[in-house]
Design brief:
There is one protein chain. The protein is of the alpha+beta class and 227 residues long. The protein is 30% helix and 28% strand. It has six helices and twelve strands. It has helices at residues 40-44, 136-147, 151-159, 168-182, 185-206, 220-225; strands at residues 12-14, 17-19, 28-29, 36-38, 50-56, 62-67, 73-81, 83-88, 91-96, 100-103, 109-113, 118-126. It has a six-stranded antiparallel sheet. Strands 6-11-8-9 form a four-stranded antiparallel sheet, with no helix packed on it. A two-stranded antiparallel ribbon has the order 1-2. Strand 3 (28-29) and strand 4 (36-38) form a beta hairpin. The N and C termini lie far apart (39 Å). Mean pLDDT is 90; it is low at 2-11.
Length: 227
């Protein structure tokens, strides 16, 4: 997961503060999608609001996945290196280093690299609410471990995820997906049953088209859970 190239600055930890470079952050490629997460919030244990970095090595690579932030999070995108090609709502534009793009929840956004070695820092949270990490960064990191052949390390990351109560079903659902992809069928069904008990409606929206669960399809237990 980590960048094995030379680092310009070693992280400096002291009592009360930490100094590090973007190049000190792990590079977590998300399952062949081309999206590379640099998990800054997780690296720092930062909890006041969500903050991470997305990077791309080559022009045309993905930076920000297409989404509308239906979680209600308001986001600020800061292009810190290179140039990003953004679509926000109905507008498409190039954003060079130093550009700041503020996007309200519910607005479509997506970005790719317009040049090599582009990085975007993203900060966000939901107005009026204390920020609680949703655990999606842990999912990225866990599957990167699985892709690298270390299923145990990825499983430990997933199990340690501190999900808010309203998304606890999602933690178990993601664990079901992880165990299915890891070939641990019994464990996958156990996690899937727990997710369904916690929030059947949301799980049933995902089951029909989630390819992570393909290893479970055809098993009689799957048909029992999703008749």
């Amino acid at each position: 997961m980590s960048d094995t190239g030379p680092r310009s600055t070693e992280p400096a930890k002291t009592a009360g503060y930490e100094i590090l470079s973007l190049d000190d952050l792990d590079k977590v490629t998300h399952r062949g999608s081309g999206e590379v997460l640099r998990p800054l919030r997780r690296r720092l244990g930062f909890r006041p609001f969500g903050v991470n970095v997305w990077s791309a090595d080559k022009a045309g690579d993905k930076l920000i996945p297409p989404h509308e932030e239906d979680s209600g999070h308001e986001e600020l995108y800061v292009v810190v290196r290179g140039t990003a090609h953004f679509t926000v709502g109905d507008e498409t534009f190039d954003a060079p280093a130093g550009a700041l793009i503020h996007v309200k929840p519910g607005t479509f956004r997506v970005a790719t690299a317009a040049e090599a070695a582009t990085s975007i820092l993203v900060a966000g949270a939901k107005e009026g609410e204390a920020f609680v990490p949703g655990g999606w960064e842990d999912v990225h990191v866990a599957f990167a471990f699985l892709d690298a052949g270390d299923a145990a390390a990825g499983r430990a990351v997933m199990q340690a995820t501190d999900a808010p109560d309203e998304y606890l079903w999602g933690k178990h659902y993601n664990l079901a997906c992880y165990e299915a992809m890891a070939g641990e069928t019994d464990a996958a069904f156990e996690e899937l049953r727990t997710a369904i008990e916690l929030n059947r409606d949301e799980v049933m929206k995902l089951l029909p088209h989630d390819t992570d669960l393909d290893p479970l399809r055809g098993d009689p237990r799957f048909e029992e859970l999703a008749p």
